[in-house]
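Standup notes, structure subgroup. Blocker cleared on the nicotinamide-adenine-dinucleotide input:
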Amino acid sequence: MSLVSYERSGRVALLRMQHSPVNSLGLEHRRAILAAFDEASQDPAVKAIVLAGSGRGFSAGADINEFGTDLAEAEPNLRTVIGALSASSKPVIAAIHGVCMGGGLELALGCHYRVARPDAQIALPEVKLGLLPGAGGTQRMPRLVGFERAINMIISGAPVHAKKLGETALFDRISEDDVVAVALEFADEILHEGKAHAHRPDLRSARAEDEGLLQFAHARAAERHKDQPAVAACIKALRAAIDLPLAQGLERERELFGALLQTPQSKALRHAFLAERRAAKVPGIASDQETRTLGSAAVIGAGTMGVGIAMCFINAGIPVTVLDQSAEALGKARDRIAETYKTAVARGKLSSSTKEERLALLGTESDYNTIAGVDIVVEAVFEDLATKEAVFRRLDAVVRQGAVLATNTSTLDVNRIAAATSRPQDVIGLHFFSPAHVMRLLEIVRGETSTETLATAMTLAKRLGKVGVISGVCDGFIGNRMVEQYLRQAFFLLDEGALPQQVDRALEAWGFAMGPFRMSDLAGNDIGWYIRKRRYAEQPEMIYSRIADVLCEHERFGQKVGRGWYRYEVGKRAAIPDPEVTELVLAHSASIGVARRKIEDSEIVERCVLALVNEGAQILDEGIAARASDIDVVYLAGYGFPAHRGGPMWFASELGFFNVERAMLRLARNPHGDPDFWTPSPLINRLAHTRADLNR
Ligand code: NAD
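Run returned:
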């Protein structure tokens, strides 16, 4: 079947894009659109043309598989197709439903008229990939929706429902009815009126306010988006829509687009985008692998994580029973969940009826027999092996065969937990991040897990709106195992001369959402303390600065107690540097005989980021992560690593492993800390001295 179907309805030709699932605009599809359009143009009986989508929408835009390849520009490229439609002597009407984004929207903008369903999702999201809409979006959009809207949509990349743009010239008709029927009717009307179809006038803005709006956007971009050249380029392109006629504006847009394609930021963002999609494909699992149906869930443990995980299920419409040994914990859990939804209603993010529907999906119980029939159980009790083993023994005895038994452990051996059951093939790690209903990352830990259970977990991740990344079994899995080395460096930096606020500032200026000390205060410093105590016993050769223990000995457990690496005012989250912490840090350096020195921000960034890179390489070499890009996804989706740097492994490969190794050997000459810390992982050695590419 052709990717574009062609039908006649009286004097109107209906071209329907049928490139499932989202009508992406790859080469074959572009060829088919142009061929159908040519057929309609050449047929003397055809007087008007309707271009419509199918399935999930009109079109979601460029084909991601063509990114960075010659195919993206191969003729007919998108600009050629749009140019042909817009130059047509017969009126062309876009019939828009569902997704209409990026190149898909630009295709619609190239038509002479547009009709849409009110809930069609309209967006120009290119900026999220460090690009600008390069097929006319920056020139046609402001002419149709005005500058203020165009600036907001193009700089944020966020989707807007068609009905919100109802009063602009973007749409000629918005209707709840079948959009193709509406478009055909609209075509008949314009033919009937016999109005010579005029090309849209080449309006240019003469409004002084538009100039002001652009200047304001420019100033704001310089302040907020300094790491994103795409934002500045979008504003330049929009300026061309004021200064130049359409044809020249399109050329200017093209030049700016070409330059953005080459920026390291866009390359990194495109890598991140593709990496996320790649993570969903599990090596060794066929695309038609059977998965189990998950219609009901239970969560064991009604603490911080249990509450968040329960909300993940509820939000996805899956009924969940929370079970805890403590009636008090269950009461509190119910209150917290109700409170979260109440706040969402108050903020206009949820309707009251949806809130009620969601709360109706929640059950709280203390008796395991009540969860015997569920399809999946997620255990989130205390991080203690014996406790978890006891819970799994119980689950094994009570819960039906074929149910998925998951643990949310952060560090423990999933296989040992599974060994407490008679069905290790059904046991898996589902490592949610706090707050579980907000954070996008879900580490899926594969023990002796069956392929079916694993595939079921991947499908669940998608259903919960998470990015699932598979990790093998090791202490800390991918994310926390790497963060431990990052934190060790951050602590050594304090011993040698830095203060928590300097380390955080340096890493945040580099792009991290949150520096390591603010992050630790948020997670609770007692959690790391607990893990370190275990390390001191199990791996005495791993050298740590003891400054974090000193902090905990002073009960500075973080935000939850109002004091940690910073102090916090009651009910507020702002981290305020605390002279008491400075004193503790200085005293600790003195106690270990280190003469403090001035540490540059660049040293802080280099040491903390390369600590992540070295452990990441080790994790990859051991096969704990299947691909370097999976490690990047973990850091981008779960640890606030700057998206425009593509994740730690992408960053390292862009730097070049030869340079990474040299930097590590230089850092190893520092007499303070752990003499073995900077021993490059064997994979880094190999990559430094061969032409192998980590990302192939
Ligand atoms: P928490 O202390 O807040 O809650 C644990 C809950 O488990 C308590 O309500 C307790 O009453 C209950 N519980 C303990 N033993 C039980 C048993 N035998 N049967 C039933 N209920 C029992 O702990 P948390 O922070 O929610 O952590 C839970 C798990 O999630 C741990 O394994 C932890 O490592 C992991 N985790 C925590 C985070 C985090 O940031 N807090 C992040 C990821 C994973």
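Discussed briefly. Residues 300-306, 324-326, 329, 380-383, 387, 391, 408-410, 432-434, 523 surround nicotinamide-adenine-dinucleotide (CB under 6 Å).
Next: hand off to the docking folks.
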